[in-house]
Specification:
With about 850 residues, the chain is of the alpha/beta class. Helix content is about 45%, strand content about 15%. The strands form six sheets. Strands 1, 4, 7, 8, 11, 12, 13, 14, 18 and 19 form a ten-stranded mixed beta sheet that branches. A six-stranded parallel beta sheet has the order 22-21-20-23-24-25, sandwiched between helices. Strands 15-17-16 form a three-stranded antiparallel beta sheet. A hairpin with a 2-residue loop joins strand 5 and strand 6. Bound molecules: N-(hydroxyacetyl)-beta-D-glucopyranosylamine. The site of N-(hydroxyacetyl)-beta-D-glucopyranosylamine (9GP) has 18 residues, from helix 6.
Length: about 850
């Protein structure tokens, strides 16, 4: 038999238009993409067309790295982290990819030579807002660090058609708009329909005997949904490693039910399609709260099942037996959202691949690791048993079976302890029955971690105490971190240049090298440059505020900023109490010499969270009064920046003087905004909560404005029947603030508008604003004093940046890799074709 001639692909020996990095080649490739991909020529092209042409130009350059990476992982069967997360808040991709490819400046020049402006093109990108806040953004930072540290990894999630809603303001109230981020196309993703999988839902199970006479169970679903993967390349920083984010989109297996269609029932025919596609339609806009909705459970099983089936496909393609699943993959569960994976992997192994229960359980238990991200009781997911059983009848059986074995284990270690059994059971039977997802995650994982030292301690002492007693060896802490590539290099180019000039650029990969800055603190010209950079960044933000809010703010004033999700526990309204306190002082004494401040807020409220929405209305109402009172003049300004997202965040962190991290101690698991601010030289005013504690330890207590009760004091105060009314009565300034609000001074004379908020503060004040008020006001006095001494302030600011090395996500990921995943790094060489063309 004649062998077919080997396909010869001409290897490019000169720079080619898809890999070359010279300015001339970049320009040629850009115009080529404009013509052949966008189908436009310069006279017709919009700025968005130019953005797309540039994005494709950059994507081509990622592809050679991506393919080399995939090829190497396949050849070497590398151990891989599968990071399962219902949210990935990626932010815009173009700028970050330019930085990581190391071609930012070159592309800027190429674009300018073409008569265009890079900033304008970057601004065209619709960010994929596929997350709510900290948890989703952390997942995105971790993908960046895994690639940078050359750790083989796959991020798995949902390709929501609509991401987090866009926030507008109407009369000072939040209004929500659909986020149609895919409207103009997404140049970064590649669909992989050939790797689509099917996910079952509903129906019933039945037992049968297989050909060998073994008892088996099969699941007859009511509905089958197709999951189609869309891949996005995740390039590491100036390295060849290019990992993958794989997001699943739901489709009906057949577009039409032809039987219904032929019988004339057109709507019925598309019904199945609509209900299937609903699974990946929209992100639930809740942060730190679980709504317990059926569709949300369906989303979870959908992406988890797709991802586990995909891992099994990869394993089998590499000719590895299923028994090696846990050697090939370590599966990180980002909170409980993917915790159903424990039951789903059991189902796949036992029912679909005929592996015996005990062996399957060994594989499962060695495959998963669970990160808890919250201490908020309302965020701990529980599913009504009935709903769970209707959607996932087989999983419910498996959960019962796991529970049966697990409770035997508990009884063996803690005999005659019925209460403990009730608390630890995977099923909550105290009233209506629920499946407890955190318990399932703890039982099915070999490692359990919190996201800051205090958080892990509180998990061990409190929320997961029983599990800690049973499995102390599983528990460990992994303090969060953030990527300096996006949140320093990309966001703050001025600071980046100064740092590079002063200490070289190794800090971008080794953030602890920032320590070298400490010696420059004594250099007056360095301090001057530091100050000027902050001023320039503040100027840029002031311009943005003028354009978007129509408010003139003074870049010389202290920029005092709180940006994060709006939540009572985060206490945006504590900052409002301070603003009104200053306002009252100025009204009483118009000549008072105060440090001028600009108070900036940003953040979304969950659409159904009425109190959070009222807090936004409070901020905008106070802003209306304060900003327009001639007695105040330019000394105080209050601004609510609408639609806080990653893109906007990148302009805000570099411009901050003061970072507000004021949650009630014991509630914020870690926080990551706190890190992004401090890295960019903002000083923090904060409580001893989450990662604030570690930030303060690192930067030094003298460079941090501490206030408020500790977590232990909060607990004690709550136990001793806290009464906010006493604080109100005994603190004249606090009383005046509340009385003015009550009188309607910030609501056009309407005493009812803020009543729910005021009543909640006066009656129970769950988050102890009144208890912390005085301490907060005093700390703010110290801030004002410190800011008046420019030299002192700049020194403190420099030391904050210099000492933030610990909070790089590279450090966090290195710890995950060493302590939990045991994933060696894998060097990626570019394929010949790519190497020749460099
Ligand atoms: O609220 C936490 C936040 O403190 C933390 O920084 C972030 C990342 O670990 O996770 C948040 N948790 C959630 O969004 C829900 O569990």
């Amino acid at each position: 038999m004649q062998t077919a001639p080997k396909l010869q692909i001409e290897t490019a020996r000169v720079e080619d238009d898809r890999t070359g990095l010279s300015i001339e080649t970049l320009k040629r490739a850009f115009l080529d993409n404009l013509f052949y991909i966008q189908g436009k020529f310069p006279r017709l092209a919009t700025q968005h067309d130019y953005y797309m042409a540039l994005a494709y130009t950059v994507r081509d350059r990622l592809l050679q790295r991506w393919i080399s990476t995939a090829a190497t992982y396949t050849e070497q069967s590398s151990r891989t982290v599968a990071y399962l997360s219902a949210e990935f808040l990626m932010g815009p991709q173009l700028g970050n990819n330019l930085i990581n490819l190391g071609i930012y400046d070159r592309v800027q020049q190429a674009i300018e030579e073409l008569g265009l402006n890079l900033d304008t093109l970057l601004d065209q990108e619709e960010e994929p807002g596929l997350g709510n806040g900290g948890l989703g953004r952390l997942a995105a930072c971790y993908l960046d660090s895994m690639a940078t540290l050359e750790i083989p990894s796959l991020g798995y999630g949902i390709r929501y058609e609509f991401g987090i809603f866009k926030q507008g303001l109407q009369n000072g109230w939040q209004v929500e708009f659909t986020d149609k981020w895919l409207r103009l196309g997404n140049p970064w993703e590649i669909p992989r329909p050939d790797w689509a999988v099917q996910v079952k839902l509903g129906g019933y199970t039945e037992a049968y005997l297989d050909a060998n006479g073994h008892y088996r169970v099969r699941w007859i679903p009511r509905q089958v949904v197709k999951g189609v993967p869309y891949d996005t390349p995740i390039l590491g920083y100036q390295i060849n490693t290019c990992n993958t984010l794989r997001l699943w989109s739901a489709q009906a297996p057949e577009s039409f039910d032809f039987e219904a269609f032929n019988s004339g029932d057109y709507l019925g025919a598309v019904q199945e399609k609509i209900s299937s596609e609903n699974l990946s339609k929209v992100l639930y806009p809740n942060d730190n709260v679980s709504q317990g909705k059926q569709l949300r459970l369906a989303q979870q099983i959908f992406f988890v099942s797709c991802s586990l089936q995909d891992m099994i496909r990869i394993l089998l393609r590499q000719k590895l037996p299923l028994s090696e699943f846990s050697q090939k993959f370590t599966v990180q569960l980002n909170d409980t959202h993917p915790a159903i994976a424990v039951a789903e992997l059991m189902r796949l192994l036992v029912d679909e691949h005929g592996i015996a229960w005990d062996q399957a359980w060994d594989i499962t238990r060695n495959s998963f690791a669970y990160t808890n991200h919250t201490l908020m009781p309302e965020a701990l997911e529980r599913w009504p048993v009935e709903m769970f059983g209707q959607m996932l009848p087989r999983h419910l059986e498996i959960v019962y079976e796991i529970n049966h074995h697990f409770l035997d284990e508990v009884r063996a270690k803690f005999p005659d302890d019925g209460d403990r059994i009730r608390r630890m059971s995977l099923i909550d039977e105290s009233g209506e029955r629920f499946v407890r997802m955190a318990n399932l995650a703890c039982v099915g994982s070999y490692a359990i971690n919190g996201v800051a030292a205090l958080h892990t301690e509180l998990l061990q002492k409190d929320v997961l105490h029983d599990f800690y007693q049973l499995y102390p060896e599983k528990f460990n802490n992994k303090t969060n971190g953030v990527t300096p590539r996006r949140f320093m290099v990309l966001s703050n180019p001025r600071l980046t240049h100064l740092l590079n000039d002063t200490i070289g650029d190794s800090w971008v990969q080794h953030l602890d090298h920032l320590q070298k800055l400490e010696t420059s603190v004594e250099d007056a010209s360095f301090r001057q440059r530091w100050w000027e950079i902050k001023q320039a960044n503040k100027h840029d933000l002031a311009t943005y505020i003028q354009a978007h809010n129509g408010i003139t703010v003074d870049p010389e004033s202290l920029f005092d900023i709180q940006v994060k999700r709006i939540h009572e526990y985060k206490r945006q309204h504590l900052m409002v109490l301070h603003i009104i306190t200053l306002y009252n002082r100025l009204k009483a004494n118009p000549n008072l010499d105060i440090t001028p401040r600009t108070f900036l807020f940003g953040g979304k409220a969950a659409p159904g969270y009425m109190m959070a929405k009222l807090i936004i209305k409070l901020i905008t109402s106070v802003a209306d009064v304060v900003n327009n009172d001639p007695a105040v003049g330019d000394r105080l300004k209050v601004v609510f920046l609408k639609n806080f997202n990653v893109k906007l965040a990148q302009h805000i962190y570099p411009a901050a003087d003061l970072s507000e991290q004021v949650s009630m101690a014991g509630k914020e698991a870690s926080g990551t905004g706190n890190m992004k601010f401090a890295m960019n030289g903002a000083l923090t005013i904060g409580t001893l909560d989450g990662a604030n504690i570690e930030i303060r330890e690192e930067v030094g207590p003298e460079n941090f404005f501490l206030f408020g009760l500790t977590a232990a004091e909060v607990k004690a105060l709550k136990a001793s029947s806290y009464n906010p009314w006493n604080y109100y009565q005994s603190n004249p300034e606090l009383k005046e603030v509340i009385d003015r609000l009550k009188a309607g001074d910030f609501s056009g004379g309407n005493p009812d508008l803020f009543r729910p908020l005021i009543d909640s503060l006066l009656s129970w004040d769950n988050y102890l604003l009144f208890a912390d008020y005085q301490s907060y006001i005093e700390a703010q006095e110290k801030v004002s004093q410190a800011y008046r001494d420019r030299d002192r302030w700049v020194r403190m600011s420099i030391l904050n940046t210099a000492r933030m090395g610990k909070f790089s996500s590279d450090r966090s990921i290195a710890e995950y890799a060493a302590d939990i995943w045991q994933t060696p790094s894998v060097k990626i060489e570019l394929t010949d074709n790519a190497r020749l063309s460099r």
